[in-house]
Amino acid sequence: MVRFTDYPEPGDLVVGTVKEVKNFGAFAALDEFPGKEGFIHIAEVASGWVKYIRDHVREGQKVVCKVMQVNEQKGHVDLSLKQVNEHQRREKIQEWKNEQRADKLLQIVCQRAGITFEDGVKQFAAEVVKTYGTGYAAFEAAAADPNALENDGFKGPWVKHFNEVASENIVLPTVTITGLLEVTSSHPDGVSEIKLALQAAEKAGGGAVTVRYVAAPHYRVEVKAGDYKSAEATLKDSVDAAIEAIKKSGGSGSFERQE
What we know:
Elements: E1 13-22, E2 25-30, E3 37-41, E4 62-71, E5 76-80, H1 86-113, H2 117-132, H3 135-144, H4 148-151, H5 158-169, E6 175-184, H6 190-204, E7 209-215, E8 218-225, H7 228-248, E9 252-258
Parallel strand pairs: 3-5
Antiparallel strand pairs: 1-2, 1-4, 2-3, 4-5, 6-8, 6-9, 7-8
């Protein structure tokens, strides 16, 4: 994992492996910072009074903790287990797993480019992580758009290999939302007008929209996108285009969002 600091910052969430449990607290190796260790005081293990610390932590357990204080001179990192909720824990573990995977993919990129992993970090990986925030985010960006790296100023023979590895290994996350579109027309050629309205819906969706017949005059509009915000925006544009088109021919249209 490409890191720019030797220690985490106060407030960061970190993944650790419990190495030793004492009556007064637990020591955990910081998985994202090789060679570094943190300490979870018994008061930070769980909310309320902790009678037996081993009821909450055990050797070998993978934990997500919040960094409370850092003393780099003494090599001390104070951690809190109780200040991390379940949602934060799941998100952090997934992020950590993603970065482990990104490291493996980066190794493949370096092998194909004919350079060592260390040279790859120096030549391009460190700057890529700075640009995209994480290594995995960079691979996702390349999978979504093969021109992303070059558009962001990256050049070199490694870019081709990076894009290939991203395309071969990254499945982009998608969300699907739907709604029920109702379109009617009293026009002599109403069937054609309705067809044009539905085509307008799909065209406005830019390939992310599918319109399916339910039962006249109802049609299901389905949108697939990378996140809910984008999906909702695309759905609105698509539906608006259909309703505008049918109204121009003297018809009517309405839409009902479905959960």
